[in-house]
Amino acid sequence: NVTTGVLLLFVGLAGIVLLTEQVAGSIENGLEFLQVTQADAIVGFFVAALVLMPEAVSAVRAALNNELQRGLNVALGSACATIGLTIPAIGAASLLTGRSLTLGLGAGDTVLLLLALAISIVSFGTGRTTMLTGLVHLVVFVAYLFLIFVP
Questions:
Q1: Rounded alpha-carbon distances, angstroms, from residue 12 to 7, 22, 117, 132
Q2: If the chain, 151 residues long, is cut into consecutive pieces of 10 residues, what is the mean pLDDT of each piece?
Q3: Contact 94, 101 (CB under 8 A)
Q4: Of 25, 79, 114, 145, which alpha carbon lies 20 to 30 A from 138's?
Q5: Threshold 0.85, pTM exceeds
């Protein structure tokens, strides 16, 4: 039944949003205690990791089983679902709770995002993905993580 499926989707999404709000508050308090300068970016990273974790595990399992297409479908599908559903839901929750929500990108983050998009065009546009392009993606990701924790 479609109605039941949509209802269960929203119930699951509400659970994830409430969990991320709870986790985000605890992480913010810890980072404030440690006097971290880029607390918003670190909290965003942990929230995104929490939301994407189940799909990421499935994508890695598929890749390890040599099912690259299934792994890519799961990974890209979960990213689209996160952007399309979770971010608006978190935005609504932040309005209801009165907490601020930061979605802006700095200059360095914009450069890394554009670089990742360009690498993705090369990777997926040709129809062939190699270990080298995957390694380049990982290097950009590690650079992003480094710049979050050491601005």
A1: 9, 15, 30, 37
A2: 89 82 87 86 83 87 90 86 77 86 78 89 81 89 86 73
A3: yes
A4: 25
A5: no
